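By way of example, what follows is a protein record of this kind.
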Amino acid sequence: MMATLVFILVLTLASCAAKIMYMYAREGEMVLLEFVYPCNSTITLQYGNRAPCYSSAKPKHMSMPPNQRLAFENVSEVCSVQWTIDPVSRDEAGTYILTTYKNGIILTDFPIIGLRIGYPPGQASCEIGDYHQDEEWISLQCTALLGTLSGGIYCYQQGLRLPKRNDLIETPKNLKQNILARHDSFVHCCSSMLDQIKDKCNCTDWGWDPISDTIFAVVDPCPEVSTELQTSVPEPPTPDFNVTEANVLNDTVTTETVKYPNSNKNMYIAHWIMGSISIIITITIWSIIVYKRRRVPLENNSPTSESRAPCLPNQNENETSFSNGTTLIRSC
């Protein structure tokens, strides 16, 4: 017990002698705390007045949250440790201490880091008030827990931000805002930081359907189509062939669409083969006709037995050759 008191007393004196450096961050951001120390020394890291979460004497025994990690660097005789918190929450605000030991003596000339976390107002919720302006509008009395960052309360209806009935009221613990809403469609409200006002799709703290007078704790003003539903939709079929028939009767035109079913793949192939065969047959027939037409004039120019000259008396049989290669044997 006495040793524990001595340790706390020594640590307190060291903390008083050390300098405190302050860092500011917003909740949800990544924070990087860096400490520099002599490489030939022993160090411990701790948060506030808790027990050390790291000691270089026992580096394998670390007790840190899942969102925190350490990284070490060694450059010549100067070492450093980077303490990363990602993402940081408001509960992690406080003092982060590096204690350096050399030859059993605590060195006090190393700074302590004080971390300050800013966070927005808490979730908004509303109560249904009275009617306003001839019952065209309803007053919503909305509240939210106060944050360290400046904020407000906003409501949307049919994609438009609703008007405020009065100015924002800030108490030591809460924000209060009266907002006017129509009673014909769904309303959803939320708290938001003043420099980052949420749009209609991210304003999901509270919802109310005035038609059914139902309040919703979970609001999804901009639902998205599920990926599973998109993948389960079958591919659209091949469109049918449409033929429009027009009937004219008594100067009036009526149209009727006749749908023919999709042709089978084998039928398309058969039609293609038959068409190819028909083309080949047609080309063959035309080739024969052209060939015969060219041959007839040649035959007419060739000498025949009917066109031979008569033999003269005492004339014997002889051969006569023509330029086109035809040989005529004359017999007298």
In short: The chain has three helices and 22 strands. The chain has a mean pLDDT of 78.
